[in-house]
Amino acid sequence: MAEAKKINGVERAAVFLLTLGEEDAAEVLKHMSPKEVQKIGEAMASIDGIDKNTVSDVLSSFVDKVEAHTALGVGNEDYLRNVLESALGKDNAGNILDRILLGRKSKGIETLKWMEPRAIADIIRLEHPQIIAIVLSYLEPDQAAEILSAIPENMRVDALMRIALLDGIQPKAMNELDEVLERQFSGNADSIKSSGVGGLKTAANILNFMDSSVESTIMEGVRENDAEMGDGIQELMFVFDNLIDVDDRGIQSLLREISSENLIVALKGADEEIKEKIFKNMSKRAGEMLRDDLESKGPVRLSDVETAQKEILAIARRMSDAGEISLGGSGGDEFV
Fold it and tell me: Is there a single domain that holds both residue 205 and residue 112?
């Protein structure tokens, strides 16, 4: 029998869903996050000519995993916590589990994840700043960054500082948030316990996804109001220079996911140490070609360099979230 084709986890999930049929697959997808649906949907759309051995391998693996678990649904919260802690570490697991459990009981705020950032900004921009902070803390950093960019400029610093100061969300705050969203959605948060969202790290993650010019303006405003908070947020931000802390294997994986043109532009504004890190993780020929391209590339606007670096960092964070790499530890046009 021919050997089954080697495919990654997302592709295996896509193959499995394709075997279920439209109605059953749709029921499964209802329980996934927007990002998960997008990833699996893209994989399903790109699948072409999967052989029977691969399908059989996927289904057999699924059956084995199901048979390994008896008493499904008994103590599943503890089981989920243990699995997440093993995969992501205690802190990250706690944050994700809080979001899962909070979302399970708060339909309204969970629905926001499926909305366009500008539509969310229109809904919340006239609400109390604390409500805005709670919403942004709960959503994914990239989505929150777009929303923060879309609300009035004079509200951004206050919103980010409130995010940094958040230490969990109490039932009263969640009830208030549900009332705000009641016009559009339904939900009840009476039984929700304090949820561990917000804080300096959340604020830093949101800024990581923002345009550099907007990020700088907000950080200046934060420092003017609270220098210590500004320093704390800055220390937690993952910027292009932090790629020096990624191991060689991680850099090699990252290089396979980014375009040569984007890399050239990003490196025009990078320190020599970062450049050498990139060069040493390429083949000798590829490294020489990259050096030549960098030397022959004319002046590049600093804003273009920052945009290219942000795009690469977004890919790095996505790969980190997927467990493919491990990240270490901000950021008239200038030319570099």
Answer: yes
